[in-house]
Amino acid sequence: MLFARTVAALVVILLAPALRAQQSYSAEKPVGTTAQQLPAYLAHAGVEQRLGQPLPLTAIFTDESNQTAPLSTWFHDKPVVLALVYYKCAMLCPQVLHGLADGLRQTTLTAGKDYDVLVFSIDPSDTPADAQHERQSFLSQMAVPAAEADAVHFLTAQPASIAAISGATGFHYILVPGPDGKMDQFAHSSVIMFATPDGHLSKYLSGVDYPARDLRMALLDASAHKISNPVDLLILYCCSYNPVVGKYSVSVLRILSLAGMFSVVAVIGMLFLLTRKPKGQLTA
Questions:
Q1: How many CB atoms lie within 10 A of CB 67?
Q2: How many domains does the chain fold into?
Q3: 55-77 confidence digits (pLDDT tens)
Q4: C-alpha distance from residue 155 to each of 62, 84, 251 (Å)
Q5: Backbone dihedral angles phi then psi of residue 245, each to the nearest 5 degrees
Q6: Does residue 249 form part of some domain?
Q7: How sure is the predictor about 177, in pLDDT bands with cuts at 50, 70 and 90?
Q8: Is residue 60 part of a domain?
Q9: What CATH number does residue 123 fall under?
Q10: Do 190 and 9 contact (CB within 8 A), yes or no?
Q11: Distance from first CA to last CA of the chain, Å, rounded?
Q12: What span, in angstroms and rounded, lies between the C-alpha atoms of 117 and 81?
């Protein structure tokens, strides 16, 4: 509930110019009172985390190359990073995509080998041409070689499929007026999601800045640690995922327990060396 309110407050700040253009005030409803009240409809623009839930793999989508197929077409034997945006957005969506591209660029994982990326438009008026334009911008920011670009797809769909993916992920959004007064903008949360290779939701990361460490750990978790190494496993043990805030944080208790375990091993080793008799010493 706290997460939904925080997201709604952020949306209000971002949409303030558009919302002010649509409001009218009177002596019976002072400006100060109105400004302090959160519009009730924005409460429906948050995220309801559905960890472990399956994605609608039979829903039909169209990618940037105009290929139309079931969602399962873009799922293989690796974890998938998901983002729900809309391609004509000029406010929050570009920040989400920029944060994702920047974070993925800084990981040591390889797109296409270790993970795939799927970006969905929640706007049924978006076209494959819009998807292609946004994909090119994303790939440029991500700075991936051509061989890795095939792992990144920007999808569009009809309302039924959009409802299927947004419903499965718990990603809620509403239409709001734009600066010109037209109802062509969407109020929504800033969040990315992770799915297992078989299409089940694994993690959510909130905000518009996604540290490489958090992205890597979320992908390792989604892959059931199949793409991890011993150092990754140690880092995963020392950090914990908080689904309420959608972030990873250092677990002090785990670090202390790990330090305690190493201390015990060190003490046992020292005692063994101190009580060990030198070679060649004869017993009386």
A1: 13
A2: 1
A3: 999 999 999 999 999 999 999 99
A4: 5, 10, 37
A5: -100, -5
A6: no
A7: confident
A8: yes
A9: 3.40.30.10
A10: no
A11: 75
A12: 5
